[in-house]
Amino acid sequence: MRVSRVQAEENRQAVINVSGRLFREHGFDGIGLKDLMKGAGLTQGAFYKQFTSKEDLAAQASKRAMESAGQRWAAAVAANPDDPLGAVLGFYLSMEHSQEKMDGCPIAALGSDAARQGTSVKDSFEAGIKTHLEALGSMLPGPDGEPTNGKAMAILSTMLGALTLSRVVNDPELAQSFLTSAAHHIRETVAT
Q1: CA 6/CA 25 separation, integer angstroms
Q2: Which residues bind DNA (predicted)?
Q3: What is the residue extent of each domain of the chain?
Q4: Which segments of 27-171 does DSSP mark as H helices, in order?
Q5: Domain 5-191 is of which CATH architecture?
Q6: 145 φψ region: left (φ > 0), alpha (ψ -120 to 50), beta (else)
Q7: 58-72: per-residue pLDDT in tens?
Q8: Distance (Å, rounded) from C-alpha 24 to C-alpha 18?
Q9: What are the pLDDT digits (tens) for 111-136?
């Protein structure tokens, strides 16, 4: 049975969304096309009608995951516009976010995997990282228009490192300590 163009596009978007979640859970090489398509409720045969390769899908799923992460940052800021940095730190450096491996930060979930992927996957991550840096830079006080790029990079690196470390330890108190310490350190850095 032939699928309409509208249905084909809906299927394509479903595959991209599901793959973004499954890649974050299993890694790019930890899940095959059959299981990715099954996760979207489709057969493997439909894959090649929609994507040129698994890397093509990985790049599109990475782009979508990074866009979703940016939307979460924006939602946090919108919920607390008086303290945008505090809002982002509050959700990003939380145990809830630490435990959201399928829906959480794609950089923490796939950063080391992305480094071993092709240019198109790295481009998706790079675009998202630049968006995060711009968002952080806009939240930082800069004397007389002084650029805040370096500070934003250090803050993003601290946030990402703390989240990653919180995910790889078994001790929940240690995990929470990484998150709390990073938030405290960032606040001190911004204040100086």
Answers
A1: 29
A2: 32-51
A3: 5-191
A4: 33-39, 47-50, 54-79, 84-92, 95-99, 106-114, 119-139, 149-168
A5: Orthogonal Bundle (1.10)
A6: left
A7: 999 999 999 999 999
A8: 10
A9: 999 999 999 999 999 999 999 999 99
